[in-house]
Design goal:
heterotrimer; A mainly alpha; B mainly alpha; C mainly alpha; A: mainly alpha; 5 helices; B: 19 helices; 2% strand
């Protein structure tokens, strides 16, 4: 793509990233959450791929790193749920809510301006899902592209 | 201590362990082959143990409830919820425990088998991740008490299955089979979602027990029933929509095929759950029962007639799977047709249903076994074409013995397990309608004829020169087949053992709608 | 009768989706049909939770009027996520099919027979 497009992508990518992180972080008090935020970030990756082309981008982002992100996200999600067993509580029990500390501020009743430091394990799971979707969707885009790159001699015979 | 922990949290662990195993698989796979093998086998073994502990708890204590994220796992209705279960609840009654046991047994055998069957392929992290996700999907589908959750696990299962069918691209043919399977299951799942919407709109609930307690048999309920029966019958491979089965079963790797049989039976479980737990006597039992019976008879006849001319051994077995699904539908359909009429239920209804439900277990055992033997033959000689095989009995003695056990069991020859359940179906169906019983017997004879032909062309005859160096299948494959074969023999010799401890409680859990509702909502 | 319009739209979209799945010969178009069907299910769920004059169920500085029911929206979100995974998997199947068979015409993707 032209220099103009690359320049615009350079500027837009951090903005998209921050917007995605904002959606992930506010997932428990506004519409949105891990999946939506992660999807927004993955569109940022798609934007960079459009601007710089498949070959160049794969030199910066390895599939291994994205796969690692996916695994970390999934493990974070199920790990957060599993930690409840340590407290002797059922699976997915929200052991952080209302305890003070991280995400532990009790929620006030009725309409409120939206306290970010609430929600217990929900924001943690949103972050985990956000990371997972970021890695997963970017990986999907890369794999779909790798199937479509026309003269890719090392993958010609198929896997 | 640890036993007590598992005892309390078994329903959650049932889903959590395979999920954790699946997610960690790519990481563990990076270390070395042996660790990955140990990890996968260990995870499956632990899940199977948890499933058996859960089943023993269900059979001693009655229905086990588990509310996710609640203060106390048995707290189904929170104080401030107004008497409605708001959380995702796992309701494991005897029928669910029965399906859990099937999934655990076949899953463990298939994993043990795949350890050497798949060892020649690359990209095994993905394969085992998908396999464990399938295990998680089946466990979730059969244990959940929340209908939307059922849909989510159904989707997990069909996505993982589609991935595993297409896993060996095989010149694109496997992908073609996967597309067929996946398009059908996506459309089916969307109709399940529509039905969920209809229930939610009418009864303000997603929990199965609440829906069951409020169901009224309105026009919308009829539409929802039609959608669910169509979608789930399609997923379990009953006849009008069976055409994905031969493709998907023949193209998937053999160990995965054995588990795909269980996966389609999880859909069958969903169908029975909808018919008996949701509607029970509110629906027009005779009409609906006859619809299920006709589906069953069509599946039996069409499946077996399509199977006879097949050249590909796995395709042939897949058509037999369609035919055997018909027996389950027939048995349970007869039970449904006389539902609500207690004297008739006592005289043959319960027995027909026990036969149908017992056949689910038996089918999973012998059909899994047959697919595994077909995979072992394919592993050694590299073809599935029956015309190119011959004389393998000289080299693969154990595989031959296991094949004989499987083939005789599927044809319903005593003293194997297929006979035990088929006898129950024949006896009870004969009282209900003799013609149906005769059709069932004829189908059995055709099945036997078909398998005699297959046996002859694979194992009999002089040793062919091109297969002179063929060796017996590796030990871990024999272990997987051996577990299933020995269970098939044991269940055939002592059917009463299984029928009284597992099958009859499962049947009574299905028919007794009130008990299911009371276990979740409490009281009457 | 006006409040039944969304359900009418659901029926129309369902028919369009099913027609695309059954009649289109192009693999990609058939997959789009599944996506259309998925959207109709989502629309159905959303319209179930609608209340006239209701506001979005967000408590951040919410005025004290009726809210629409949030549960169908949560179900719908889950269904969208599943729909995304479905389309990704199907598109990757289509890519492989196109690579191996050189076509996405359903009449020519028929190597499994019998």
């Amino acid at each position: 793509m032209s220099k103009l497009v690359r320049f615009a992508a350079d500027i837009l990518y951090p903005v998209v990233l921050i917007f995605g992180l904002y959606i992930v972080a506010h997932g428990h008090i506004t519409p949105g959450g891990g999946f939506q935020g992660g999807a927004v970030i993955a569109t940022g990756v798609a934007l960079v791929i459009v601007a710089y082309g498949y070959r160049e981008v794969t030199q910066w982002i390895g599939k291994g790193g994205l796969m690692a992100r996916e695994v970390v996200g999934l493990l974070g999600f199920i790990g957060t749920a599993l930690v409840a067993f340590i407290f002797g509580m059922p699976f997915f029990y929200n052991y952080l809510a209302g305890q003070g500390g991280l995400f532990g501020v009790p929620v006030t009743y009725g309409p409120n301006p939206g306290e970010l430091n609430t929600g217990g394990t929900v924001p943690l799971m949103n972050f985990a899902v956000g990371i997972e979707v970021w890695g997963g969707l970017a990986l999907v885009i890369l794999y779909l592209l790798s199937g479509l790159v026309p003269h890719d001699d090392h993958e010609k015979e198929g896997s | 201590m640890i036993l007590e922990f598992v005892w309390t949290h078994a329903p959650a662990l049932l889903v959590a362990i395979p999920l954790l195993g699946a997610f960690l698989c790519p990481v563990i796979g990076k270390i070395s082959r042996t660790t990955r093998t140990a990890w996968v086998a260990g995870i499956m073994l632990v899940s199977a143990i948890v499933a058996f502990i859960l089943a023993s708890r269900v059979l001693t204590e009655g229905t086990v409830l588990y509310s996710f994220g609640a203060f106390d796992p048995t707290l189904t209705i929170p104080m401030d919820s107004g008497g409605i279960p708001i959380r995702i609840i796992f309701t494991v009654d005897a029928m669910s425990a029965f399906m859990d046991i099937i999934c655990a047994t076949v899953g463990f055998s298939a994993i043990a088998y795949s350890l050497s069957a798949e060892s020649r392929n690359s990209g095994l992290e993905g394969y085992y991740t998908l396999f464990l996700l399938m295990v998680c999907g089946v466990f979730g589908m059969v244990s959940t008490g929340d209908f939307f959750n059922f849909f989510v696990f159904l989707e997990i299962l069909s996505m993982a299955s589609a991935g595993i069918i297409a896993y060996r691209v095989d010149g694109g043919v496997a992908v073609e089979a996967a597309i067929k399977y996946f398009v059908l299951s996506s459309v089916g799942a969307i109709f399940v979602l529509f039905a969920i919407g209809i229930y939610y709109g009418q009864y303000d609930a997603l929990n199965m027990a609440v829906i069951a307690s409020r169901i009224q048999w309105s026009t919308l309920d009829m539409i929802a029933l039609v959608m669910l029966v169509a979608a789930l019958a399609m997923k379990c491979g009953a006849v009008p929509m069976h055409f994905w089965t031969p493709d998907a079963y023949s193209m998937a790797p053999s160990s995965a095929t054995a588990f795909l049989v269980v996966a389609s039976q999880a859909s069958l479980y969903g169908l029975f759950r909808v018919l008996f737990t949701f509607y029970n006597v509110t629906l027009n039992a005779a009409t609906m029962g006859w619809i299920i019976i006709i589906l069953g008879v069509l599946s039996m006849v069409v499946g077996v007639t399509m199977a006879i001319p097949q050249k590909d051994v796995k395709r042939l077995m897949a058509y037999h799977a369609v035919s055997q699904t018909g027996y389950m539908l027939l048995g349970v359909g007869v039970g449904l047709a006389v539902l609500g009429n207690q004297p008739l239920m006592e005289s043959f209804g319960y027995m027909a249903m026990s036969g149908g439900v017992f056949h689910i277990l038996n089918h999973a055992l012998y059909k899994g076994l047959l697919f595994l033997t077909a995979g072992a033959i394919f592993y050694r000689i590299g073809t599935r074409n029956l015309n190119k095989m011959g004389g393998l009995g000289h080299n693969m003695k154990w595989t031959m013995i296991f094949f004989i056990i499987g083939a005789l069991a599927i044809a319903g020859i005593p003293p194997l397990n297929g006979f035990a359940s088929k006898l129950m179906i024949y006896e009870s169906v004969f009282i209900f309608n003799p013609v149906l019983a005769i059709i069932a017997m004829v189908v059995s004879i055709l099945t036997l004829a078909s398998f005699v032909k297959v046996f002859h062309s694979i194992f009999m005859g002089p040793q062919l020169p091109e297969y002179a160096g063929v060796k017996e299948a590796p030990p871990s494959m024999l272990l997987g087949m051996g577990i299933l074969a020995s269970l098939a023999v044991i269940f055939g010799l002592f059917p009463d053992l299984v029928v009284t401890t597992l099958v009859n409680p499962a049947v009574h859990a299905l028919t007794d709608q009130g008990a299911y509702i009371a276990s979740v909502l409490g009281g009457a | 009768m006006l409040w039944n319009l969304p359900y009418l739209a659901v029926v129309i979209i369902t028919v369009i989706g099913l027609a695309a799945i059954l009649l289109k010969k192009n693999l990609i178009k058939m997959m789009l049909g599944i996506n259309i069907l998925q959207s109709s299910a989502n629309l159905f769920l959303i319209s179930l939770g609608y209340r006239e004059g209701g506001i979005a169920p967000i408590y951040t500085l919410a005025p004290s009027t009726h809210m629409v029911l949030p549960t169908p929206q949560a179900l719908c979100l889950t269904s969208i996520v599943i729909g995304l995974a479905t389309s990704a998997l199907m598109l990757s199947f289509a890519v492989i099919i196109h690579k191996k068979y050189g076509t996405v015409d359903l009449d020519q993707i028929r190597r499994l027979q019998g």
